Amino acid sequence: MTKFQLNRRTLIKSGAAIGAGLALPTIFTSSARAYLNEPKGGTVTLGFNVPQTGPYADEGLDELRAQELAVQHLNGEGDGGMLNTFSSKALKGNGILGKKVQFVSGDTQTKSDAARAAAKSMIEKDGAVMINGGSSSGVAVAVQSLCQEAGVIFMAGLTHSNDTTGKDKKRNGFRHFFNAYMSGQALAPVLNAAYGADRRAYHLTADYTWGWTQQESIQEATEKLGWETVNNVLTPLAATDFSSYIAPVLNSGADVLILNHYGGNMVNSLTNAVQFGLRDKMVNGKQFEIVVPLYSELMAAGAGANVRGVIGSMNWNWQLQDEGSKAFVKSFGEKYGRPPSNSAHTCYAQVMLYADACERAGTFDPCGVVDALEGFEFDGMGNGPTLYRADDHQCFKDVLVMKGTENPTNEYDTLEIVEVTPRAQVEYAPDHPMFAGGDLGQCNSGA
Amino acid sequence: MLGLSKKDTTFLLIVIFLTLATPILLQPFPEGSALAQFNAGYPDLMQRFAIYGIFAIGFNILFGLTGYLSFGHAAFLGVGSYSVVWMYKLLSYNVLPGLILAVLMSALFALFIGFISLRRSGIYFSILTLAFAQMSFNLAYSVLTPLTNGETGLQVYTNDPQVLMSAGSPTSPHFFGIVMNESAKIDVGGWQFTFSNGYYFCAIIAIIVFYLSLRIFRSPFGIMLRAIKTNQTRMSYTGLNSRPYTLAAFVISGMYAGLAGGLLASMDPLAGAERMQWTASGEVVLMTILGGAGTLMGPVLGAGFIKYFENIFSKINDNILYAWFSALPEGLADALVFMLHPFIGKGWNLTLGLLFMLVVIFLPGGLMEGGSRIWGLITGKNRKSKKAGKDPEHHPKPSAHVN
């Protein structure tokens, strides 16, 4: 073996080589475009980033169905769905700004890292101008900040954490879905009427941003009623068996179990709770009850008979009878032979809202789209009159309180609407303590 | 040159050329053609090739040379990432302090874990490292949430101190002003090549650490490590204490992993706990075995192979399949899509698993063995080695892992 000898000549040589190597990329740096991924040909590409594996996979697949449907409607195929009922008439069914819409899809795996990698590849490789989807707030927060850094628009899918439009809000990110605070405000009166004001609650909470903020919101809302919070136990998102978390509930003196779980987590924890006979117990002289603050049809279907009579909240439900909902349920049902879930609805609405904003702004430039969406008021998307608030990019609309159907008549009849909570009751100031600490920053077009 | 033999110098030069030309080599199909789907020359994936290449090179120093199979290297990857993001939060977006801290922190972690785990060898060592990695994962995931932000992942917020940030500094990771996520796109004919700052930063570091690993492989220290792999018992009978050598190898490979983790956070300023999960540790073992344990180039190839599948195959969906088979009659196209459906999209793991089985069964030396067999077929050298295979007197075979 030879000795590694460093003399002046080799040092200068290698120094120059390394310097040249480092400087090489900078000479190419150019900015010929007006904004990142400006569509040049006759098409525009949207990126649909949904969980296809992991605990929220069912939700993700339903989102993808709705996104495909939205693309069809934008391109003038099918019956047009909610395009016909949408209050803004800018979209004409000829794509967006005359460009045919095409899409690429990615798998978030319900992991922040994987979701960012998938979104990056859609932005860098496929030239997506907008990322839509996601079924977890952890993922939504991670992808939203990626889109802000990269300079594309993020239209959040199902994300219910207060942080998405609170401490983690971004100028390039928009949320149509409701949030945990709204769930708490909508649920509290119904819980009061159903279970009384003297209750002891035990929380099981998914251990990430959504679980934390939902638990905080529900605790605040129920404690205002006079409920007492016995305990809050955090459970890992990847957990599949919750029996070890359920067993201590029996001896805690609590008479309500609040499951701050979603998707596969909720199906498993609710099933475990029912298997332990919690719902047949009498505690403190009262019937033991279970509450699932955030519901979805797919979870209700997964949990089967266990959801009967369990109260929760939703962003939208296919049983709503307004024109927009009816049109969407009809075209979704005709294409896929099943009613859409509320995660499907929010993704569909987000794609439509994005397309409409581009059309109204006359450009795909993220900064133009941001201007068009901020403070936008619309109707006919299934939730009644809705506002995209400029202060935090959160949509304000009615919230549904749901209950598991006692005597289902068919396999999709799993939940029934208890109450439509009016928008005024769930509104809050942009600087509410649960949402404080964030900053939208400036819009980024990636130029 | 640089203390290498002539053969190794050529080898290093080839590696340098391949690494620097990656943006062109990975973009073999013109934009808009049906095969453009298989292009991999976009910055994020190229950065991953380089970073996981570094991770695998480091892992190979431990596993390839000493034969100690660690199932806990993802812990160092995570430590590296968290260090870099914390430096962003406290100082500024310059990646240098973070990378230095990443290497130091992972070295400390490796020293601690290695000191305990290396008291055992074989399967017990693997289990111990696995246990440590899983502990680190759970700590990051739910116990140390103020430090790691749990499942959501650690991110930089506008209200973080960032004491070294001045008004004009870049607001995303940079190396003294060279912003990582900037790139230049060059159109040549139908092809589009993306030259990204981030990729070249990773590539240059990868070349440097590759050179270091080459030196380690050829050094007396490397020979000592190989001796440990061959027969540790005999080593201890000759009165040699092997533990300092294995510990040094463990720490070095831990530092490589920390550097890789730091680079991940340098390309994308987020650190997630799932980076520390046991699946991530398993992945680097797969990379090394798939490419060829104990060879210099193998682990890098394996890393590229797995990342390619994860990012390119997982994006092929039924619509794309239908587009490919659009020329065929409808019934046949449906049948083909139905048959291929389990192997694409979210089924990429299945495809990778099958390929992994084929490689392990038919090419125990990994992709490198496949490469050298093909090379042998071309140059006609294989006849000689076939004769050697029928060696009636059972002469010891030449060592396979000096390459």
Question: How is the topology of this model organized?
Answer:
The complex is a heterodimer of chains A (447) and B (403).
Chain A: H1 8-28, E1 43-50, H2 57-74, E2 100-107, H3 112-124, E3 130-133, H4 137-150, E4 153-156, E5 173-175, H5 180-195, E6 200-206, H6 209-225, E7 228-235, H7 243-250, E8 256-260, H8 263-275, E9 282-283, E10 286-287, E11 289-294, H9 297-303, E12 311-314, H10 323-336, H11 342-361, H12 366-373, E13 377-378, E14 386-388, E15 395-396, E16 399-404, E17 415-421, H13 423-426
Parallel strand pairs in A: 1-2, 1-3, 3-4, 4-5, 6-7, 6-8, 8-11, 11-12
Antiparallel strand pairs in A: 9-10, 12-16, 13-14, 14-15, 16-17
Chain B: H1 6-20, H2 22-25, H3 43-66, H4 74-90, H5 95-117, H6 122-143, H7 145-148, E1 154-155, E2 174-175, E3 178-179, E4 183-188, E5 191-196, H8 197-218, H9 220-230, H10 232-237, H11 243-267, E6 270-271, H12 278-291, H13 298-312, H14 318-324, H15 330-340, H16 348-362, H17 366-379, H18 382-389
Antiparallel strand pairs in B: 1-6, 2-3, 4-5
Structure summary, number of beta strands of chain A:
17
Overall CATH architecture of the domain at 6-275 in chain B: Orthogonal Bundle
Main beta sheet of chain A, described? 7 strands, mixed
In CATH, the topology of the largest domain in chain A is named Rossmann fold
Give the helix/strand class of chain A. Answer: alpha/beta
The average pLDDT value of chain B, as a whole number, equals 87
Question: What is the CATH fold-level name of the domain at 6-275 in chain B?
Answer: ABC transporter involved in vitamin B12 uptake, BtuC
Percentage of residues in strands of chain A: 15-25%
Number of strands of chain B: 6
Anisotropy-based shape of chain A: globular
User: Can you identify the CATH class of the largest domain in chain A?
Assistant: Alpha Beta
Distance between the termini of chain A: 52 Å
- What percentage of residues of chain A falls in helices of 4 or more residues? 25-40%
Number of domains of chain A: 2
